[in-house]
Amino acid sequence: METIKGIPVSPGISIASVALLRSDNLRIHRRFVGKEEVESEIRRFERAARSASRDLDIQIEALGEDLMIAVQILQTHKDMLNDPGLHSDVTNRIRENKFTAAYAASIVLGEYHDRFEQMESEYLSERSHDIRDIERQLLTRILGKRRKPRVFQENVTVVAHNLTPSQTASMAKEMVVGFAIDVGGRTSHTAILARALQVPAVVGLKDISRKVVNGDIMVIDGYTGEVVVNPDKKTLTTYRRKARYSENFFNQLQEEISWPAETIDGYEISLSANIELPEEVATALEWGGKGIGLYRTEFLYDQGFPDEELHLKTYRKAVKALRGRELVIRTLDAGADKFHEEFVGFEEPNPFLGCRSIRLCLQQQDLFRSQLRAALRVSVYGPVKIMLPMISTIEELRSAKAIIEDVRKELVSEGVEMAPRVPVGIMVEVPSIALIIDRVADEVDFFSIGTNDLVQYSLAVDRVNEHVAHLYQPSHPGILRLIKEVILASNRAGIQVSICGEMCSEPAYVLLLMGLGLRHFSLSPIAIPTVKRIIRQVSMKEAVEVADRCLSSEQASESEEYLAERIKKLVPDFY
Ligand code: PEP
Ligand code: MG
Questions:
Q1: Are the C-beta atoms of residues 543 and 514 closer than 8 Å to each other?
Q2: Are 162 and 23 in contact (CB under 8 A)?
Q3: Going by DSSP bridges, is the β-strand pair 156-160/13-21 parallel, antiparallel, or unpaired?
Q4: 333, 472, 506, best to mutate for ligand 1 pocket (most atoms within 8 Å of CB)
Q5: pTM
Q6: Exposure check for the chain: N or C terminus, fewer CB within 10 A?
Q7: Which helix (H) or strand (E) holds 50?
Q8: pLDDT tens digit sequence for 15-55
Q9: Shortest-distance Cα residue to atom 1 of ligand 1
């Protein structure tokens, strides 16, 4: 038995034998053709492109409407295959360099691929896999090496170094019950599709495809990212139990999605979602999100500074998809863990404490103003709020608010339509602001507690450093006191307080946070159903007991043990 840890990207448990997918070995040699063969090579390329495009049509047709995300991926491939730019680039290489069709196609697509791969954004660099995929589809046809897609006769866990998007999409209706992939991240196609298919998946497993053979038994835990190869009897029994729970859970999910997240004694907790791309709104709503409590806008800056129109276009997409539900737009939070060294323009010895986030926006006001103009303008299409990250002093808050007001007046003078009022709030994620929260409460419309950073800055523990990960303790009594103070101050001032840190996605902390007084959570879309399940099984009285107990603990380890016991009793099969 071996247990390997990767990145969980689609929840659920699966136990099945391994089907190993090897990638096609398509080594293309530099070959030339004579002048008289140029036209036939061009025809060979065109034929391959037509054939690949036709096959995509068949796959799209077979998928029907129930898996729109797979259809969209295949449709994009089709558009790329039919793109006149690609055709002229390849035919020029054949004509001018006398390359074979295969070599010309691999050179051109290789260049496209490299361009995408170098992009800083994880999302865009993942798109380089689409280019590889198209290359594979073309080359297998040009070289006459096309294989029939694999048909599985029994439930399998697909293990591969990487799956091309079309491979993943073509498996959509097969007997694939899990994915374990060497490479990839949250935004890889396998991840997106696995979630759409509701198939448990773990990616980023490094060399799993070299460690297993066909027929090995594999457990995939899409909640924790653990993958167990050839589990022993005891482990198998534990996972079977967990799988049964998970299966029931997902079967009931469709029904439960519309149910309120209400405790047995009638307290409702609103569950919104955290997103990074407007496309994620659909997933958030599918999982039962009531709106978007945190829209991380950093992705928009991947390709340099977006102009106001790009901001507006992107936000409008999210607002329209929300159809009247609320969107909380967080202004640029670049720096430290969120890439963008080029924003700052100089190297910093300690970027987590450096010129990041709101500090950067106040220093580079053009950047800030174009985002604010778009955020205010989009308010005409649906309810939006503006949220300022990393506020550490009242001066910062006042400066940011003054700029917002100035931008608003500017828009009014230009005759631009906006909602009469766009609420402005802050993330409470720096201890200095949490400690004077009563003084800030009169100056904002809402607070959202960002525990990811609040824990990091309060405990002086880098949130991404695995060497100090054991010191990163969300249930540290100091953190709980800070959270409690923020809630009390908000209640006194009559403003909304929510939490948008990962802490509220974790089952063990749900009762604690409710008991501390939080009624609004914003969390990863896939965590919403589990959190709702927990809320619906408890009373607020219990939650308050849990919170009191943790608040009076001396150390986090005591609370952690207690919370683990408590949650195990609540959802015994889950743990
Ligand atoms: C946080 O700090 O808790 C938070 C939600 O924001 P981010 O993870 O984007 O820093
Ligand atoms: Mg943060």
A1: yes
A2: yes
A3: parallel
A4: 333
A5: 0.69
A6: N
A7: helix 38-63
A8: 999 998 876 656 677 888 898 999 999 999 999 999 989 98
A9: 450
